[in-house]
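User: I'm putting together a small comparison set for a docking exercise, and I want a reference complex before I start. The sequence is below, and the ligand is zinc ion. Could you produce the 3D structure with the ligand included, as structure tokens?
Assistant: Of course. I'll restate your input first, then give the structure tokens for the complex.
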Amino acid sequence: MPYLTANSINNAAPEMPLAESVSAPATSHFREFNQTIKHTSSLGQDTLLGPPNGRRLQCLAMTEYDIDWDKVTDEATDILSRYIAIDTTNPPGNEEPAVRFLEEILRKDGIEDLTFYDASDETSKGRLNMLARLPGDGTAKPIVLLNHTDVVPVERGGWDEDPFAGLIKDGVIWGRGAVDMKGMGVIELIAMLLIKRLGIPLKRDIVFLAVADEEAGSEYGAEFLAREHPEILNAEYVLNEGGWGTTAAMGTDRPAFNCAVSEKGPCWLTLSTEGRPGHGSVPHHDNALDRLLRALQRIQEWERPRTVGPELSAFFAEAHRGGYLEEKPTDDSIKAMAEENPLISALTTNTISLTTLNAGVKHNVIPASAEATIDCRLLPGTDAEAFIEELRAVIDDPKVKIERALVSSTPASPIDTELMSVIKDVTREHVEDASVLPSVSTGFTDSRVFRNAGVTAYGLIPVLLEPAEAVTIHGHNERVSIENLRLGCQMMFEIVRRISS
Ligand SMILES: [Zn+2]
């Protein structure tokens, strides 16, 4: 799933060569919590006492929660390694063994409030989803830790290591899903386990929701749950994938965490035409392929306006405030950047990519039918039906049929929330010089299902990736460093604990 990250803005060509070594600089940004996460229950707020000691931050405040992060990191590493080894390549998905694996870990820690949702049907088996709950006292609505158990396929030839061995080598965990999204799932799982072990009183339920089929459109996962079990949508917040931290942003050698507050909506359409077949040696005016090409030509020439939505404005404003962008961004300067940068371009307009074209059987036969698929991505808040009507007017040919393959739009989540403040605080405390930038994702995630139900959903995998690591997501050699897994566990625990207790 293509994400906009602050770093990709400055890399017009995001396909960077895959560095074989995962170099160390990421770790230098980490603030080490030598002691433990501390807690002042009276204010429900943590106070950091003692000045930063170089890049290391000593936490000297009272320690209510005694967490051995070395041990937790070992545990997380072991779980992720074994989780990656359960091949849930989608298609076909077959997520059930992954769910059973997570179930066993949860039960071992006494988390027994588990609900299973089997979305399997005649054509697809083993499509199991699972919800685990840590109960709160009900004074606040639940927070959902959302993660998908399926992974995208691999091209084995491109990998230096076995993508499903769960290999741990030189401080790095290799394999498909290491980041997207089994790594994040483990980070969320660890937060559940720690909060349960520590017996932290909760004002809201913490819900760990492991879903199937995200990588293939969520028909057996989040979409199924929203349709058949809408009670799962009764939450205040969702934490999901959608963004992550990068070690450098916009040419500045400083880390930034992209927290997705919104995403573009897919509007996948099939255009088809019919005409009169005939001999290629005698052209006529009812050639189905001619008709389709005329329609596609008009679509290509359709100039759609650029707009800078409030979320994108906020992203650039925050980047400026954080010192990543020297000049104060304006709508005009953002639009100017969009002319140069395909990602910013995609975030300022409804895009259309022609993706497939099918017609014809033989060199000298005029085809009777032709078909094209187009992948349109709509800005948050765009009315998909109005867009399709506009497209119909642009094509201006009633003989071109338009069919919907996948249409899903989503509103943006608000930026000014208690959860966002917590994310910002926790980020600042853990990673020196880092800012949180509210970002918009060009790809879609399961967050859309929750946002459409009015739930605030943020996409943030709390790890700090080098550009060379980030491109391995959905690519070859996906991997995550143990150091990053540790950071993710620390940040997630702290974020979830603060917002829930
Ligand atoms: Zn994913």
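The domain at 265-301+350-410 is CATH 3.30.70.360 (Alpha-Beta Plaits). Confidence is low (pLDDT under 50) at residues 1-8, 10-30, 32-63.
User: Thanks, that's exactly what I needed.
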